[in-house]
């Protein structure tokens, strides 16, 4: 009997001390919980500071915008090489000032065209070169339509397409054309790739605010369906707004100081990423806290358990 009992003791399952998630309290998470109020205050001060003392991101992007075309692209370098050899221009920014008439263009349209070309050529700040083909008898047919109701002048501008100087050059040409007085039945337009790029940037900036508002409204509605709690939704939205304001402000500061260049597409992408990251972080934090509370934990363990600053969480986010 004694041998049987000893054999049973030997084969009995060895108790293993289970390490629960409550016992795991990362040091960083504990520090964040203890210093929760100062951390919140610091983030709020950063968000307020970069939005009060730094211009808005859209304004900074307009002032320091970078060209959309890569400077080392074969087409861009080839175009600039042609302009260099002919001593006409050194950018890829050009527009077509087009005259359109209700009837075939006559002498009054020619005089208006010549006067407009002179004004463009006198603007040495934004205009590099203007091809006055229609003003020469032997080249006029090359820039005139078959029905003789339209003609254009090619204008090379300073600054590359999409850049801050390039956009200002397009605006300067448009102002010259808008201030001119074409004859009756004739209208002048600014067209071409440079003008199209400038319009694309304006439309992108104008749609950014609408896109941001619609996205935030959709996120708030989805969170209300999931949490069914106004307080929880408001907490999540506060985290989202603080993250969005801080991210936009910091990038605006980097652009204002010349550390990095911006474009309208980069600003749109940054806003979308800031909204996504802020929402993801807030949902993760609230979800882990609610999960711990449902297990019967007190308030502190859910906060410190599996903190989103742990290496495992960071790897999961990547």
From TrEMBL:
Main site of residence? membrane
Q: Does the keyword Cell membrane apply?
A: yes
- Provide GO CC annotations from the record: plasma membrane
Gene3D superfamilies, alphabetized = Multidrug efflux transporter AcrB transmembrane domain (1.20.1640.10)
Keyword tags: Cell membrane, Membrane, Transmembrane, Transmembrane helix
Q: How does it sit in the membrane?
A: Multi-pass membrane protein
Q: Where are the transmembrane segments?
A: 34-54, 208-227, 234-254, 266-286
Taking every annotated instance into account, which residue ranges of this chain make up the domain Membrane transport protein MMPL?
Answer: 68-296
Compartment annotation = Cell membrane
| Superkingdom of origin organism | Bacteria
UniProt-listed Pfam families: MMPL (PF03176)
Alphabetical list of PANTHER family matching this protein: MEMBRANE PROTEIN MJ1562-RELATED, MEMBRANE PROTEIN YDGH-RELATED
Family classification: Belongs to the resistance-nodulation-cell division (RND) (TC 2.A.6) family. MmpL subfamily.
This protein is called what? Answer: MMPL family protein
